[in-house]
Amino acid sequence: MRSAFVVPPPLRPGDRVRVIAPSSPFDRTLFYRGLGFLSERYRVEVGAGVLDRRGFLAGDDETRLAALEAALVDDGIRAVVAARGGYGAGRIAHRVRWDRLRQSPKWIVGFSDVTALHVEAQGVGVCSMHAENAAGLGRGDAAARTRWIEALERPDLVRTFSGLTVLVRGSAHGPLVGGNLTVLFTAHAAGRLRLPEGCILALEDVAEASYRIDRMLTALLVSGALDRVAGVVLGDFTDCSAGVHRVSVEAVLAERLGTLRVPVLAGLPFGHARPNVPLPLGMPARLDADTGCLTVGSGA
């Protein structure tokens, strides 16, 4: 694992942006609205087969793989934006020659299932942006759109999130990594998850019962996958039920992550709820779980 991450060049008005569909199909109305918004500022291109559908996938694996690879090897593209998350990126991500991203750094942008692509970018030491997908931008949330543009055009800007909930006190600093817990868990099962030493791990999830959250965290803990983590910050765990045993997901997160004996904060506004603030993965971060503060950016 490389100790330092390469930061892709900031986006600028007029830059080429490629939108691809590496995972599931999407709401076309939201998708076109998102494209319209992006086209007001950038030269937007749409990857081959983006409107395809094959069951729960946005087209067959070969078409989605080809679209991803074509975007990565094009030196003129400055950002590769996912149309939507859902499911499917893990079926193709391991087949990509990710060294091409290291040779021609560009922003991988998206969240949820797109975590599978963030894991691969992390593996070659390139920063990526955990942020709204194109269809999410189609919802017309002006504040979310402004945050998205600022994050991609000013990735070096130091951002501070205060008033977070302290679960385990202490402080830590290191590269910010992570994303969706379920996808990280499956990436670990596939042998693709390689967390850097001393990292700050950001986690979120959606529609998972608390016992399933417990199962995934326990497997990651027992396997040693989290041994390099220096601190944890939790986002939204949306629609994650307590189940018939009435054990809340908050209780599970506190108990399981408490065994790591590293500082833990909760309440970072990212994930499947609103707002979903952009997080530049791979950038330096400082977690202060005495004051409930997370700082992210090159000066953190």
Spell out the blueprint of helices and strands.
Blueprint: E1 16-20, H1 28-39, E2 43-46, H2 61-73, E3 77-82, H3 99-103, E4 107-110, H4 115-123, E5 128-130, H5 134-137, H6 142-153, E6 159-161, E7 165-168, E8 171-180, H7 181-189, E9 199-206, H8 210-223, E10 229-238, H9 249-258, E11 264-266, E12 279-281, E13 284-288, E14 293-296
Parallel strand pairs: 1-2, 1-3, 3-4, 4-5, 8-9, 9-10, 10-11
Antiparallel strand pairs: 5-12, 6-14, 7-11, 8-13, 13-14
Notable characteristics:
globular, eight-stranded mixed beta sheet, 300 residues, 9 helices, six-stranded mixed beta sheet, alpha/beta
Calculate the terminal CA-CA distance, rounded to whole Å: 21 Å
Number of helices: 9
Low-confidence stretches: none
Order of helices and strands: EHEHEHEHEHHEEEHEHEHEEEE
Structural class: alpha/beta
Outline, from the CA principal axes?
globular
Give the fraction of residues assigned to helices.
25-40%
Q: Which percent range describes the beta-strand content?
A: 15-25%
Number of strands: 14
- Give the strand order, joined by hyphens, for the main sheet: 6-14-13-8-9-10-11-7
Mean pLDDT: 97
User: Whole-number radius of gyration?
Assistant: 18 Å
Largest sheet: 8 strands, mixed
Name the quaternary structure: single chain
